[in-house]
Amino acid sequence: MAPRNEDELADMMFTATHQKHPAFIRYPRGAGEGVAIKEQPALLEIGKAEVTRNFSGQAGRKVALFGLGNMHRLAEQAAVQLTEEGFDCAVINPRFTKPLDEGVTEFFARAAEVVVTLEDHVLPGGYGAAVLELLSEKRVATPVERVGWPDQFIEHASTVDYLRQKYGLTAGHVVARVKALLAKEPSARLTAVA
């Protein structure tokens, strides 16, 4: 489980105490978003994603952004920027990496022209890789743009924001990558993803 904010962390901790097997919650260190925490945490359905923003149905190329954990806020920021440029965006909070919500993932991948996965994790073996495996098994050819940390030593810096800017984990970088991918010819997109 990966919470998008401190309220969802409380829900995940509550959910973990109701399991008859080990549960793992991955959350970043540092301050949270500052959202209010409800008085009674909610019991989450294991393996069920949350759609926080659906496609509007307006004209525009469709982009599905899956923002895992603390990267959900980045997915929302990128969706706002893309919408201002005429794209129709859906934002999904995956919540779980194992088990993945196969139904929601496949549904939005088939509906979108591009899927973007965002994770505060190295890309190899991460959430985006699991999405690629699922879509390959389901024979979904929608291109997937993965945003996360490169598989290399990441130096320490005075701020995480500096590192995110340096390694392309910002809304502006996400928007640029989506636009670059969609600017390619369809056959080139499939070759690049395969």
Protein model, in words:
The protein is of the alpha/beta class. It has one domain (47-193): Rossmann fold. Helix content is 38%, strand content 16%. The chain is built from 7 helices and 5 strands; from the N terminus they run αββαβαβαβααα. It has helices at residues 6-16, 72-84, 102-111, 127-137, 160-166, 171-183, 186-193, and strands spanning 50-53, 62-67, 88-93, 114-122, 144-149. A 5-stranded mixed beta sheet has the order 1-3-2-4-5, with helices on both faces. Helix 2 packs across helix 6 (171-183). The longest helix is centred in the middle third of the chain and has 13 residues, at 72-84. The protein is globular and about 50 Å long. It starts with 5 loop residues before the first helix and ends with a helix.
Within the largest sheet, what's the order of strands?
Answer: 1-3-2-4-5
CATH class: Alpha Beta
Question: How many strands, which pairing sense, and closed or not: the largest β-sheet?
Answer: 5 strands, mixed
| Mean pLDDT across all amino acids | 93
How large a portion of the residues is in β-strands, by DSSP E? 15-25%
Structural category is alpha/beta
Work out the number of β strands: 5
What's the order of the H and E elements? HEEHEHEHEHHH
Instruction: From the 3D structure, determine the CATH topology.
Output: Rossmann fold
Cα-atom radius of gyration = 17 Å
Helix content class: 25-40%
Uncertain runs with pLDDT below 50, 5 residues or more?
none
Which word captures the global form?
globular
* End-to-end CA span: 28 Å
**Alpha plus pi helix count:** 7
- Give the name of the CATH architecture: 3-Layer(aba) Sandwich
Number of domains: 1
